[in-house]
């Protein structure tokens, strides 16, 4: 029987981030194949069949329980690896960001032909906030790609992180010969589909003349030049990787499984066991026998017959055992977590035990909120909260039937409490008309659907032009007197703080110029 320390030490929990179509699903699938967690390639994909965004129930049915982010676990070389998936553009939501709070590192998949794309940038920003290690996989080398040096430079320039290429591609597309492993001084040869086949490799120093025979003079010369250029640059620094300031870069082709295994091996070598999390009583020892966890996501059950919700928590210390009594710090209540489950690719499984680093989903009788802490009875510390992320889409919302005022207020407040949407007040107006802000537009559909089905309220919804929201830190006039440009408005949150919603970064210039006493908070979190 492995000890608690051994079980925890072998855990790695990472989020996989990318812009849609870069190859995140394909890479995840290949990871799972290595772990034997799924029998055949295609299973992850099948679950994600594209659905019309308007049909929420259909989305639920097709994708199983997790319409937003899901968790997958697999074993490889003695490690137990948890992958947190971050959903694509259609179902992008605050949950996507919150999922990143549960990871200890991130794998960023970049399409070699496209480079850094908008969604990569957004997700990266949140990872960078947490200073977690970020590994870059530059994918689709079997296709024509951009120049690899240019790609690395783009990552550095656009994302503000240093890079260190662990391996270097030899050509791309039809000319793709493989990669050169800089440390091991070894070429891994590309030969189409690699899964199940052993990848041919050859140990060869760059200056060795056999390199010319093997690759041809032209390719060999190019490889020497490029690797020399890299060598003149930055040294590898493990501490910088762990601090999240240096991203190890790997080139490969997920579709043909080329480069996936070396990537996984280096990833496991460079990452550590789950890192301690900070609570209001200081850092909590991951290896302590006492279980503790925080809730990072709550998902309402769309099945009307079961009003329960599912709360996802990241275990931060100790061991979780089913049917044991735990303690919910925020409510002060003792509880047993019923039907705890993990997700193995397409299936859900009831778990009997889980360890620090793991993610479990439990039925929530309406007790939990995002950021809550669960511990063992007697321990009352709280993990630091999960930030709220700046919404990018806004709608003015009111009930179609003014007689439904009460249900409307109850519904909007409850759904906002779950963290599915953010609601704001229009200063001076009543609660029968509010502004709803979301990170991804699918959240509007979900909100509308749930208001109708759970609260029996049809909504009148009007799109608003804002795409930014900042907390007003200070102002030297009454909020009514703020000089606004078109496409800007003053809102209020439920703690009665004032915020400014506006359209485009340029409005900030206008607003600050015309309101010299106005200071806006410069942060993602509101
Ligand atoms: P996701 O949206 O990031 O999850 O991307 P997918 O994994 O669904 O991949 C998007 C498309 O790119 C699919 O058609 C994949 O088959 C294809 N793809 C993924 N990886 C590679 C690769 O290494 N080479 C090539 N040629 N195509 C790839």
From TrEMBL:
GO molecular function (one): translation release factor activity, codon nonspecific
Domain of life the protein comes from: Bacteria
Record keywords, A-Z: Cytoplasm, GTP-binding, Nucleotide-binding, Protein biosynthesis
Domain Tr-type G, chain residue ranges per copy: 9-275
Primary site of residence: cytoplasm
GO BP annotation list: regulation of translational termination
rRNA-binding is among the record's keywords: no
Keyword Transmembrane helix: no
Binding positions for GTP per the UniProt entry: 18-25, 85-89, 139-142
An example Gene Ontology CC term for this record: cytosol
Localization: Cytoplasm
Classification via HAMAP family: Rel_fac_3
Family indicated by similarity: Belongs to the TRAFAC class translation factor GTPase superfamily. Classic translation factor GTPase family. PrfC subfamily.
Function, in words: Increases the formation of ribosomal termination complexes and stimulates activities of RF-1 and RF-2. It binds guanine nucleotides and has strong preference for UGA stop codons. It may interact directly with the ribosome. The stimulation of RF-1 and RF-2 is significantly reduced by GTP and GDP, but not by GMP.
Name this protein carries in UniProt: Peptide chain release factor 3
């Amino acid at each position: 029987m492995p000890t608690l320390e051994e079980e925890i030490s072998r855990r790695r929990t990472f989020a996989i981030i990318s812009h849609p179509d870069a190859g995140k699903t394909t890479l995840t699938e290949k990871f799972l194949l290595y772990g034997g967690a799924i029998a055949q390639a295609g299973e992850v994909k099948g679950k994600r069949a594209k659905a019309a965004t308007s049909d929420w129930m259909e989305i639920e049915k097709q994708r199983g329980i997790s319409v937003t982010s899901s968790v997958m676990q697999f074993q490889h070389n003695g490690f137990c690896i948890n992958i947190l998936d971050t959903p694509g553009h259609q179902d992008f939501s605050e949950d996507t960001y919150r999922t990143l709070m549960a990871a200890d590192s991130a794998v960023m998949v970049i399409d070699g032909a496209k480079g850094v794309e908008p969604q990569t940038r957004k997700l990266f920003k949140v990872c960078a906030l947490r200073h977690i290690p970020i590994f870059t996989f530059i994918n689709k080398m079997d296709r024509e790609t951009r120049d690899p040096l240019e790609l690395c430079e783009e990552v550095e320039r656009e994302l503000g992180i240093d890079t260190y290429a662990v391996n270097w591609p030899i050509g791309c597309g039809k000319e793709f010969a493989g990669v050169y492993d800089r440390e091991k001084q070894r070429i891994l040869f590309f030969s189409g589909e690699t899964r199940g086949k052993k990848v041919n490799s050859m140990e060869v120093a760059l200056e060795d003349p056999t390199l010319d025979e093997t690759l041809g003079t032209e390719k060999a010369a190019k490889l020497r030049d490029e690797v020399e250029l890299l060598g003149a640059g930055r040294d590898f620094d493990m501490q910088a990787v762990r601090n999240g300031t240096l991203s190890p870069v790997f080139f490969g082709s997920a579709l043909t499984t080329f480069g996936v295994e070396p990537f996984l091996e280096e990833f496991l070598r460079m990452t550590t066991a789950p890192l301690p999390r900070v609570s209001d009583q200081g850092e909590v020892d991951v290896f302590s026998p006492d279980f503790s966890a925080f809730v990072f996501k709550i998902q309402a059950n769309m099945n009307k017959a079961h009003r329960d919700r599912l709360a996802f928590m990241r275990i931060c210390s100790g061991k979780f055992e089913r049917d044991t009594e735990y303690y919910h710090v925020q409510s002060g209540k003792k509880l047993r977590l019923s039907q705890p489950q993990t997700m193995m690719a397409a299936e859900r499984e009831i778990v009997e035990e889980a360890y620090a680093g793991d993610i479990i989903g439990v039925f929530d009788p309406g007790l939990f909120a995002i950021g809550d802490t669960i511990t063992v009875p007697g321990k009352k510390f709280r993990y630091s909260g999960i930030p709220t992320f700046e919404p990018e889409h806004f709608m003015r919302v009111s009930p179609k039937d003014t007689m439904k005022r009460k249900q409307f207020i109850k519904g909007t407040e409850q759904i906002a409490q779950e963290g599915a949407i953010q609601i704001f007040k229009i200063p001076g107006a009543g609660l029968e008309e509010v502004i709803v802000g979301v990170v991804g537009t699918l959240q509007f559909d979900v909100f509308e659907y749930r208001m109708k089905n759970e609260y029996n309220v049809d909504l009148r919804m009007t799109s608003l032009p804002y795409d930014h929201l900042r907390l007003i830190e200070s102002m030297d006039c009454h909020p009514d007197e703020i000089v606004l440009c078109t496409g800007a408005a003053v809102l209020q949150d439920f703690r009665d703080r004032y915020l400014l919603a506006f359209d485009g970064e340029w409005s900030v210039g206008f607003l600050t110029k015309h309101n010299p006493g106005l200071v806006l908070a410069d942060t993602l979190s509101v």
